[in-house]
Amino acid sequence: MLELEGVDAGYKDLQVLWGVSLRVGEGELVALVGPNGAGKTTTLRIISGLLKPTAGSVRFLGRPLDKEPAHRIVEMGIAQVPEGGRVFTGMSVQENLELGAFTGRARKEKEQTMKWVYQLFPRLEERKGQRAGTLSGGERQMLAIGRALMAKPRLLLLDEPSFGLAPILVEQMFEMIAEINRQGVAVLLVEQNVRAALELAQRAYVIENGRIVGEGSGDALLSFESVRSAYLG
Amino acid sequence: MSTTMVAQSLASGILVGALYGLAAVGLSLVFGVTKILNVSHGELLMLGGYTSFWLFTLMGVDPFAGIPLSMFALVIIGLIVYQLLFSRLIKLPTEDKIRTSLLVGFGLGLVLQNVALRLWTADNRGITPSYAGAALTILGVRLPYVRVASLVIAFVFLVALQLFLQKTYTGKAIRATAQDWEAATLMGINVYRVYLLSFVLGTALAGAAGTLVAVGYSVEPVMGLHWTLKALIVLVMGGIGSIAGTLVGGLILGVTESAAAVWISGNYRHVVGLVIFILVLLVRPQGLFGAKEG
Ligand SMILES: Nc1ncnc2c1ncn2[C@@H]1O[C@H](COP(=O)(O)OP(=O)(O)O)[C@@H](O)[C@H]1O
Ligand SMILES: [Mg+2]
Fold first, then answer.
1. Could you give the number of structural domains in chain A?
2. Could you give the dihedral angle defined by the CA atoms of residues B219, B224, B226 and B232, in that order, rounded to the nearest 10 degrees?
3. What is the pLDDT of residues A21-64, one digit of tens each?
4. What's the pLDDT tens digit per position in A148-173?
5. Chain B contacts of A90, Cβ < 8 Å?
6. pTM recorded for the entire structure
7. Cβ of A11 less than 6 Å from ligand 1
8. How far apart are CA A145 and CA A160, in angstroms?
9. Residue B174 structural domain
10. CB-CB under 8 Å, B189 with A71
11. Domain CATH code at residue A82
12. Hey, how many other C-beta atoms are within 10 angstroms of the C-beta on A97?
C-alpha cells in the first residue's frame, strides 16, 4: 500500500535520510525504531508530505505522493499523529475532532466517525466540551489519535505515541493501537519504546543515521543481537 | 469642569474607540493567522474611506449602504496586494516574516499614500449626506447619529466575525492555522488558502472601518500611519486573537485619549496612546510578538 524507494531528504544543507526504502502493506502494523535523531520523524514527514524528498519515490496505493501537497495526502487516506500530539489547545475536544474530519470525504461521515472515536476513547466523550489545553498528557495523546482517525485514514502514522506517558498508560496506549489496527487501519508506528513496539508489530524496520539497517518480523528483530544490545539492554 | 463636559468626552471617546477596535481587529486577524504584520493596514483603511467618498460624490451612494461596496473594493485590492507582495513572504520562518512584512508594508503604505495624493489631493475629505449634522442630545451630551450608527455597525462586525470564527468550519480552520499551521496541514487544511482568506478578510474589515471613519470624521492621504499606530496600540492592549479584547482595547484607548484632551491638553491626545503602548510592553515584557493562546 505504501512504498518508499531510495528516499533522500533533509533540511537545508543537512541531509538526514539516505536511500530509505520501506513498505507497509494493507492492514499491516509496521514499526520503525531507532535511536534519537536517526530520522524517524523525518521519514513520517516525507510520507505525510510536510517535507519533500530530494531523491527517490514515495507511492501510496500505486499513486506517487512526491508532488502532492500535504493537505491532499490527508484526503488520499494518510493521517499523521505528530510528535507530542500537537492538539489545538485553544479549542475544545470536540472542535479538535471536527477539524480532524476537515477533508470532504471525511466530513460527510463526521457524525458516525465521531461515535466510533468516542467508543474507542470514552474519556474524550466525557471531556468533549473541555478545552484541549486542560487535558492531561495521556488524554492529549488520545485526542491526537482520535483526531487523526476522524480523517478516516487507511494508513495511520504514529510518532512516539507513548512518549511521556506513565507505564500503565503506555500499556493501554499499545492496546488501543492494536485495536485500531484490528479494525482495518494500517499503522506505521515510530517508537522509542523498542521492545513494546517490536512485540506489537508484524514487521519492523531499524533506522540509524538516516539509513535502514535492519528489517524483519517483530519477533526476529527482538532476538537480533545488535538490536538487543542497542535498545533492549 | 462640568459633568456634562466629562460625559461628552467619555461619549466621544467611546464612539471613536469602537472604530479603533474595528481598525485593529483586521490587523490582528491577519497577524494572528499569517504572522504578517501589515503596517499598511491604515492606508488600506484610507482607501476604504476614499472608495465611499467617490461612491457618494460621484454616484450618490449612501455611505452606510455602500459599506459592502467599499469592502468589496478592498477585497480586490487585498487580493492584488497579497498575490503581488505578501504571498512571497508566507513561507518564511515567523521571525523573518514579521520583520520582512514590516518593511514591505511600510513601502506599500508610502505608495498608497502617494496614489491617494494624486487621486484625491491632500485635502481633508468628508462624506456629508443630508443627515450628517444631526445629533441626539441626552442631558446636554451631543451624540451625532452617524457616529452612533458607526459604533453599532462596528459592534455588529466584531460579533459577526467572532461567530464566523467560532461556529463555521472555515472559521475553525482559520483558528487551527493560527495556532499550529503544520498540525492544521495534517488535518487536510490548505493553509495557504487560509492565509489568503484571512488577509482578504482583514482588508475587507479595513474597508468597512475606512467608510465609517470617512462618514463620522474625515479622510486624507496621510491618515494611514495614524490609524496603523492606533491599531497596533489596541493590538498590544487587547492581545492577539481575542476579538472581545480588541474591542475593549479600542474603547479604552478612545476614552483615555478624550480624557487626556480634556484634562491635560488637546496636544496630548495622541501621546497617551503611545504611553499606554510602552506601559503595556513594560508590564508584559513578552510584548507584541510573545502573546500566545494558552
Ligand atoms: N526542522 C529541522 N531542521 C533542521 N534539522 C532537523 C530538523 N528536524 C530534524 N532535524 C535533524 O534531522 C535529524 C533527524 O531528526 P528526526 O527525524 O527528528 O529524528 P528522530 O525522529 O529519529 O529522533 C536530526 O539530526 C535532527 O537534528
Ligand atoms: Mg522524532
1. 1
2. 130
3. 999 999 999 999 998 999 999 999 999 999 999 999 999 999 99
4. 999 999 999 999 999 888 888 899 99
5. 175, 179, 241, 293-294
6. 0.93
7. yes
8. 11
9. 25-223
10. yes
11. 3.40.50.300
12. 26
